[in-house]
């Protein structure tokens, strides 16, 4: 049987992770990357980046779009604080894929605007 955590612990863990995005002198970043780690677009989190967790889930506050993407095929994303310290990474896919983030288009052209409508982080992993 896998271990599980009570809601209060899941909230604490989620809040800890999301608070790391707010470390530094400015907003954290969500960087969309190609499979070979080339930045396609960089979005800015609000400050604070996420609302407090409820039931182990934290909903992102508004995320500012990148109005002039570098371009490339998005395969993953990294959330970092303003100093570039990685907080977490995740997969990105087009609709119908099973990525942690689903975007309408993964093939971004140079100069495109790349944004995200909503996001949430949850702690649901078992030990």
Structure, explained:
- 11% of the residues lie in helices and 28% in strands.
- By secondary structure, it is mostly beta strands.
- It has one domain.
- The strands form three sheets. The protein has a five-stranded mixed sheet with strand order 2-1-5-6-7. Strands 3-9 form a two-stranded antiparallel sheet. It has a two-stranded antiparallel ribbon with strand order 4-8.
- The longest helix has 14 residues.
- The mean pLDDT is 89.
SSE ordering? HEEEEEEEEE
Distance separating the two termini: 10 Å
- Name the structural class: mainly beta
Tally of alpha and pi helices: 1
Strand composition percent: 25-35%
Q: How many β-strand runs?
A: 9
Rg of Cα set? 15 Å
Give start-end ranges of low-pLDDT stretches. Answer: none
| Helix percentage range | 10-25%
Integer tally of domains: 1
- Sheet bearing the most strands, described? 5 strands, mixed
- Give, in spatial order, the strands making up the sheet with the most strands: 2-1-5-6-7
Summary tags:
single chain, 127 residues, mainly beta, five-stranded mixed sheet, two-stranded antiparallel sheet, 1 helix, 28% strand
Summary, kept brief:
The protein is mostly beta strands and 127 residues long.
Describe the SSE topology:
Elements: H1 7-20, E1 29-33, E2 39-44, E3 57-59, E4 72-73, E5 76-80, E6 86-93, E7 101-102, E8 107-108, E9 120-122
Parallel strand pairs: 6-7
Antiparallel strand pairs: 1-2, 1-5, 3-9, 4-8, 5-6
